[in-house]
Amino acid sequence: PPPAPPYTPAVPPSQLDKGQTTPRAGTSLPFPGTGESCVSLPTGRQWTTGGGFANTTARPWYQDKAVAAYLKSGAEMPLKGMFNASGRVYPDVSAIGHNHLIISDGLSAYGDGTSASAPAFAAAISLLNNARLAAGKSPVGFLNPVLYAVAEKNPAAFYDITVGENRCGQMTCCPYGYGTAKGFDAVTGLGSIGDLGIIRDYVLSLP
Known about the structure:
The chain has a single domain (13-205), classed as Rossmann fold (3-Layer(aba) Sandwich), CATH 3.40.50. The chain is of the alpha+beta class and 207 residues long. Helix content is 24%, strand content 18%. Strand 6 and strand 7 form a beta hairpin. The chain is built from 4 helices and 9 strands. The longest helix has 21 residues, at 114-134. One of its GO terms (biological process) is proteolysis.
C-alpha cells in the first residue's frame, strides 16, 4: 500500500520453491530440499508480490538498522532519487501465499495472495499470544518492533528468502524494481517464520 502504515505488519505471499532456493532447515514438508522464493513472474507465477519504500510514511525507528543494511546490500532497486529512501519499507515479513490449502466446511480449495499469507501469519501470532496469556501476561501488543528485535537477536527466527524480485508484473517487466537480499529486503521483509519457538521464547521474555 502506498501509505504503508507502520502499526501493523505487511505480509506478502511467498511460495514453496525447489531447485533455486536454500532448503528450509528442519522442515516437515514432504518435499526434501524445498525452500521459498518470492512470488513473481521470474519465479514461475503469473503475478508478482509488491514491496518498496513508502512515499508518504516516514521510516519508523524499528526499521532503521535493517533498512540501512538493505540500502548498502547491492540488491536491485530503483535509481537514487526515484524512490523515498527515508520512507517506511514494506513488507515486514512473508508467509506462504501461493497454492495455500484452505479447508472450510469440509471442502478444500487453494488460495493465493495476501488473502492467504496474512491470515496464516496472524494464526502464528495468535499462538504467541496464547503462550503469553498462559504465562499470565498480556498479549504481545505492538508487534512490528518485536519482529525486528527478535530477527536482530537471532536471525534463525526467520527463513531468509533470497530469490526473486518484484519489477515484473502481470503483463510485463518494468525497468526498475526491488530485489531480494541476504537479511531484510523490500520484497520479502525479514523473511518467513523459520522457528516459531525462537520468537515465542523472545516474546515470553518480555514484560
